[in-house]
Amino acid sequence: MSQAVAETTLDGANRSNLPAYDVDKVRADFPILSREVYGKPLVFLDSGASAKKPRAVIDAVSAVYEGEYANIHRGVHYLSVRATQLYDEAREKVRAYLNAAKIGEIVFTRNTTEAINLVASSFTGQRLREGDEILLTELEHHANIVPWQLAAGRAGAVVRASPVDDDGLVDLEKFEAMLTSRTKMVAFTHTSNVLGVVTPAKEMTRLAHEKGIPVLIDGAQSAVHLSVDVQDLDCDFFTFTGHKLYGPSGIGVLYGKSNHLEAMPPYQGGGDMIEYVTFEKTTFAKPPERFEAGTPHISGAIGLGAAIDYVNALGRDAVAAHEHGLLQYATARLSDMPGVRLFGAKGEKASIVSFLQDDVHPHDVGTILDQAGVAVRVGHHCAQPLMDRFGISGTVRASIGLYNTREEIDKLADSLHHVKEIFG
Hints:
Layout: H1 23-28, E1 36-37, E2 40-41, E3 43-44, H2 55-68, H3 78-98, E4 106-109, H4 112-123, E5 133-137, H5 146-155, E6 158-162, H6 172-177, E7 183-189, H7 201-210, E8 215-218, H8 222-225, H9 230-233, E9 237-241, E10 252-256, H10 258-263, E11 274-277, E12 282-284, H11 298-314, H12 316-335, E13 340-343, E14 352-357, H13 362-371, E15 374-375, E16 377-379, H14 384-390, E17 395-399, H15 406-423
Parallel strand pairs: 3-15, 5-6, 5-7, 7-8, 8-9
Antiparallel strand pairs: 1-2, 4-10, 9-10, 11-12, 13-14, 14-17, 16-17
Helix pairs in contact: 2-11, 3-11, 4-5, 12-15
């Protein structure tokens, strides 16, 4: 039986005009959701790590290899021209998805991590001097910490972190106070992969820009759950990854304002990023090709385009309302359970519930849930500094996707009761 969705979107808009959301029909689009584990129906609550793929994406990738594959930007024969067309169409779909001003502002990468490394190396590498600072927040994934540490180490610069409060919310006053003449780059997550909290990204970007500081936003989680408009955010760079957006793994996106990309040197050298090569000198292609050396992940880009088509067809506001309704339901169910401690339960949130249960180690909780067919993530979630901030080693994380149901949240809660029975 299809469930009702929440009455408002994440932005608080009334959902009376949104298209009907039939979660049973959606689930039928995902072949893997019909399987069992340990003889029990799979309850997949780990989409924050990597989401399942709808048939439309699987078929799009298969179609490339079965009938339309060739290398792109190199051939004049039919298959090369066709593959190039599909690849370029995928880039346009990403541009529209983010509302970037120009298609040349969309660079394909392997993932969010590579996109951040590209900026840290090519853009920030030109700007940093000894004593300069890069400002992050305590919420960051390791992928938005380590590349900046490497860049800072090469230049003798320093990485600093703006604090968050006990609910994981960014303190804007402290953030602003840490923006100084030494700050040469600001990078922060749009949505925490641990807590699900949504940062005030537009305001943080405005504060940084008032001091002439460029901003990168890590959108690995937000691009899945929020309607992202990079022109409205006014960020200099924005990154996300395909595998969390129901697309293939190995494909990611870097959005960069065209004036920045045009001024940046190549990140890697090789084919397809050149204009002309001699042994004495090489001139480089314009963005985005300048940053896409070698044969790209052709099927991955096309599959990402198919994933965007799929989400758009469902309706992004309808998806957000469905997920937010489940988030509210899960938060209420777990809040009522004795011994369960929720993290980041206040403020604007996307579809993540992070918690601890009594004194039971998260790995033990995860193992018992797994035996019940419930897949969650446990550990530090590649965010050890945030764990240190809360004085813990890790959490249990249930991350909700567009295919989850209330019945699956109930299964999670029932399984947690079983954890309590085992550990007393």
